[in-house]
Amino acid sequence: MNRDIQYNQPIIRYENGKLYETEDSYVTEFPLTLMVNGEEFATVICSPNHIEELVLGFLASEGVILKRSEIKSVDIDDSKGFAYVELTTDISQRMQLSTKRMIASCCGKSREFYFQNDAAIAKTSMSTIEVRPDQILNMMARLQEESRTFHMTGGLHNAAISDGDAFYVHRQDIGRHNALDKLFGYCIQRRISVRDKILIFSGRISSEILIKAAKIGVGMIVSKSAPTTLAIQLAHDLNITAVGFVRDHHFNIYSHPERIHNPS
């Protein structure tokens, strides 16, 4: 069940001293309310595609589910914007961790993060993956090639998960957290191990994004944009290699550079 994530709309453009009629592309903003075991759990503002992946990845990253087998059923009512999830477990005890919260800086008030919950779910990476510099450049070039809707609208975040060579999947969303949750959900659905995988990301590596990578369980995150100081501190602590400013023929390594090496 997927709606269009992009629409064309007649507009008036001003250019070179003139007003004229033309057409522009813009992205869809879609509120999705998650009902878990009959109770309203959260409303996520998202792009309306790959919704079941988003639901699974969001619930896993928030600690609601710990494994795929805890999902009894997922029913998406696309017309009304609801996802109904039935679990095999009672989540009330896990959600007691979610009482202390802060508003994430990179998605406004559409997503909340919980200090205690983050600490309980974020994992220190045990990844042994190693890659060459040319693989990092090639992965970012591939992400740029796959980001066709972004190039038309300028309104989406793009992310992919890779083993260093092949892309397992590319996802896009108006919310950067949502794009990563869709990747996580994809891997959960297909029981793909994420331990020795790499996240390739279009946006800033903030502390919330770094925590999201740790919750997913990858050992490396690669971005075309900048990191923040807190993100780098967390990357050092959680044994995650953070790579930023991947552009043209250069990039910066901010933590755990031992996973990146030139061929001998």
From TrEMBL:
NCBIfam families: fdhD_narQ. Keywords: Cytoplasm, Molybdenum cofactor biosynthesis. This is Sulfur carrier protein FdhD. Required for formate dehydrogenase (FDH) activity. Acts as a sulfur carrier protein that transfers sulfur from IscS to the molybdenum cofactor prior to its insertion into FDH. Belongs to the FdhD family. The lineage of its organism: Bacteria, Bacillati, Bacillota, Bacilli, Bacillales. The keyword Cytoplasm applies. The active site is at 107 (cysteine persulfide intermediate). InterPro entries: Cytidine_deaminase-like, FdhD. It is found in: Cytoplasm. Gene3D superfamilies: 3.10.20.10, Cytidine Deaminase, domain 2 (3.40.140.10).
